[in-house]
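Today's session is about reading a structure prediction critically. Students often jump straight to the picture, but the first step is always the sequence itself: look for stretches that repeat, for charged clusters, for runs of hydrophobic residues. Only then move on to the predicted structure, which in these notes is written as discrete structure tokens rather than atom positions. Here is the chain we will use throughout the hour.
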Amino acid sequence: MEVCKKVHVFALLVSTFCWHTWIVSGLSSINGVIRSEKYQGGLCSIFVQPYSKYNCHEYSIGTSDGFKLGVQRLNIPSFSKGPVLLNHGVLSGGDSWILNPPGESPAFILADAGYDVWIGNARTTSFSYGHEYLTENDKAYWDWSVDELAAIDLPTMVYLVNNITKRNMHFIGFSQGTQAALAAFSEGSIGDKVEKVALLAPVAYVSHAYTPIGVAAAVLHLDKVFQDLGLHSFSTKTKTGKQYVDMICAAANTRCFEGLTDTFTGINCCINNSRRAFYEKYETQTTSTKNLAHLAQIYRANKFQKYDYGLLQNFIKYGSKDPPEYDLSKVPKQKLFLAAGEKDALANELDVERLKIDLGGQGFQYLYKPNYAHLDFILAYNCKQELYDHVISFFENNV
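Below is the predicted structure for this chain, in token form.
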């Protein structure tokens, strides 16, 4: 098995050099920037208003570094329970919580249960509102990683919900949304405003992730290649992005875009295949190359740590040669619920087990789903019975 992996990596390395000239010429035609797709109308009008039973309101809130985040509030007229904030994963946006109809989408399920649902959209995603003065053509627009999502975006959204409702909230994170939450809790920036926390497909460590695109990119330092080429953002929706993903996956002897979802996440058990075209209309979304580089660094270092700027810049920024690790012992485990899937290729169960150990090994609730892969946690047609009934029970249990 290990020999095969090394052969695949070597083959991919060769193909990377062969494609290098093509990549440079392709990227020069788009000035190093792949624009994120924008849609007519907001998240509420596209996904919620077709179902007349729900109220939905759009909010925009500015961050300390000038981004304008989109946050949507979703509930039914008779809602009686407190607020719950939803935080999405990488290469997606807040719409990922409502891509299925009522009864199958997490946001609708929570609203039907009486919760005041708030959907967060991180910087540069399709349903946020850009920046005060930067544009997508500016390098600085993409100069961020999960560090900024944890230190700035998530606390900003928590502040908005708390300021409007005058109540503390529950929190649900998915994938990188869990990573941002773990980092924020370890830094002490949101704990006093959050009651209970559900982390779905939790990501802190990623060293046992086994998707072709993730492993190949991390092992071959393709994140560094992206940055050296002046590619500050990454999208799978452009011709260049699609071809580049296929190039990364060449060593696996497959064309990734023939099965893009499984390539990124593992084989999901319970997604309605008839809705895939609808999903792919809105997902994936553009992220920063720096954000992907940070994930690759975490993979290579086998540590949950801040962005590695290199020896000199680390000393300037952090006062040490290595980036500091996030202290998971500071996460409030007594109000924590984790849910992981055996088939998940991104939040691999070995990495989740390490996270559990770092959280103290006990004192939190844990749900293991043998049949679930990564996207099942937000898109499975049976997610209400299999997952969100458990989350709601956790929220409503006073123990």
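Discussion point for the tutorial: Residues 179 and 203 are 5 Å apart (CA to CA).
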